[in-house]
Structure formats: C-alpha cells, structure tokens
Amino acid sequence: MRSFRSMAVVVAVGIAAGCGGDSPTTPGGGTGGTGGTGGTGGSARSVKADPAFAQDIFEIFTRRGCTASGCHGSGEGGLTMTSASSAHSNLVGNPSTGSPSETLVIAGNAAGSYLVKKLEGASGIVGSQMPLGGSPLDSIDLTNVKNWINQGAKNN
C-alpha cells in the first residue's frame, strides 16, 4: 500500500509538471545558461525577425510542454494544440475561452493579443501566467512569439 501511495504521488507530480516544462529557455539556448544549443535538432536559438510558425513558434510550445497531453495537447483551458496546424487555427483570430472579449492572436498586433498577455502575466488576465507551472518564456522565445504575431501570424 505504501508503494502505491508513493507511485500515486509521482504520477500526480508528473501530471502537474506536464505543462510549462523548463527545457532550454535561457538566453543563448543552453540548459544552464552556458550559451549552448537548445530547441529541436540542436540548432542555436536566436531572435528571428520573421519566425515561421511550425519551425519556430510551435517548437517553443512543444519544448515548453504546452502541447503535452496534460496541457493544451488535451485541450486544457479550451485551447487544443496537438499539431502545428491545429495550434495555428485555434490561436489566430479566435476568442479566449476564459476571456471571450479577448482574441488569442490578432495578426499584426502582438500587444493586443491575449496570448502575449498570458505569456507576460499581464494584469487583467483570467487565470495564471503561461506556461502554467513553469518559468516564464525567456526574452528569445517571447520576442519570437511577438515577432511572429507582428509579422502577420502566418501559418508557415
């Protein structure tokens, strides 16, 4: 019985940590701020003027655990992000479930997009800052999300 309780605690902690993982997000991309590489494929992380959604933005969501089954991979908070295609179509031009007067992503307007407000933990958001249970996005990831939106939130 005792090992069952221990296993239940381990599973519960794993589920709670499913969203907002802290994989490489330090500037320079390393896991310990060493300036190494991060993201997928070992490529160096950098700010991009016109990031691609599938390669750059969805990669952030995947790396940070937002697409995991315990988070938006299972539709938590009314937002489903199981693939780059579904994430894009569910983000751009759609209202927030928690705050229907807010649009998740307004193409060309990062400052007005609720996604950015949630990522920054702005006052007036419903619920918690995203990613839930993890550290906030670093300046590289947050700037890339903003740049993607400001460049028209393209599905590329």
Defining key terms:
156 residues, mainly alpha, 5 helices, 34% helix, 0% strand, globular, disordered N terminus
Short description:
This protein is mainly α and 156 residues long. 34% of the residues lie in helices and 0% in strands.
Question: Describe it for me?
Answer:
With 156 residues, this protein is an all-alpha fold. It has a domain at 49-156. Helix content is 34%, strand content 0%. It has five helices and no strands. Helix 2 runs antiparallel to helix 5 (139-150). The N and C termini lie far apart (51 Å). Mean pLDDT is 79; it is low at 1-18 and 21-42.
The N- to C-terminal Cα distance equals: 51 Å
Decide which structural class fits the backbone.
mainly alpha
General form: globular
Question: What portion of residues belong to β-strands?
Answer: under 5%
The overall average pLDDT, rounded, is 79
Largest sheet: none
Tell me the layout of helices and strands.
Blueprint: H1 2-16, H2 53-63, H3 84-91, H4 114-120, H5 139-150
Helix pairs in contact: 2-5
